[in-house]
């Protein structure tokens, strides 16, 4: 029993559907001589003539039998490929995202994807951005969201400008004339670097509270224990963005970037996640 390559069957069916060797070649990206060689090979494997020898594309009785089964085989092949692609897209997605962005965006993102693609499952890791970028390079994530200095997001799939702002409690006292009391994420965080760089030794500051979670920062800032910096778009309503001229130097602008795994970042599931986050990010921006 001989196995018949599906590419030969697909070419045969395409010739019948388009009524021509040249048209079939145009659709399949092959030359007419290549199409003729494929038909010669198919006939040799089957041991029958597929077309009547009258200069037309009329099928022999055997050719009609082959055409009927070829369509069934190709349909089964295509159904299998489609089902496998759907199964692959339904795997667990490994997402890395900064803690503050997770709190702000993930509830809406997961709710949206839960309606559109309930077969998806997620493994979410919250870290500061430089740890997420390192993890992506070690193939630990399918996709990450990272905050980077302006102009430093090379290789990103999508990039948005992200202004930073000083943040204090709703009833914080004026800050002129005294060292800034800084509440921040652990060392390596872009917010922390931006605050220290903006203040410099002249203004004076003291790191009075450090926490890896947004909830921890919120607890300290909301009570007036200190101030912090956040992306302007994700400042909680229970805190306030300190306006320019509020006794603090301006913070440098940053960028938020969406990175995909270079090895398998183009799977349907990852692209669906990237598209959903992009739409949500722009809607809530």
Could you please describe the fold and organization of this structure?
The protein has nine helices and ten strands. The chain is of the alpha/beta class and 285 residues long. It has three domains: 6-88, Orthogonal Bundle (Arc Repressor Mutant, subunit A), CATH 1.10.10.10; 93-152 and 260-284, 3-Layer(aba) Sandwich (D-Maltodextrin-Binding Protein, domain 2), CATH 3.40.190.10; 164-252, D-Maltodextrin-Binding Protein, domain 2 (3-Layer(aba) Sandwich), CATH 3.40.190. The strands form three sheets. A five-stranded mixed β-sheet has the order 2-1-3-10-4, with helices on both faces. A three-stranded antiparallel β-sheet has the order 8-5-9. Strands 6-7 form a two-stranded parallel sheet. The protein is rod-shaped, with a radius of gyration of 30 Å. The termini are far apart.
CATH-scheme architecture of the largest domain? 3-Layer(aba) Sandwich
Number of domains: 3
CA radius of gyration is 30 Å
Strand pairing plus helix content: what structural class? alpha/beta
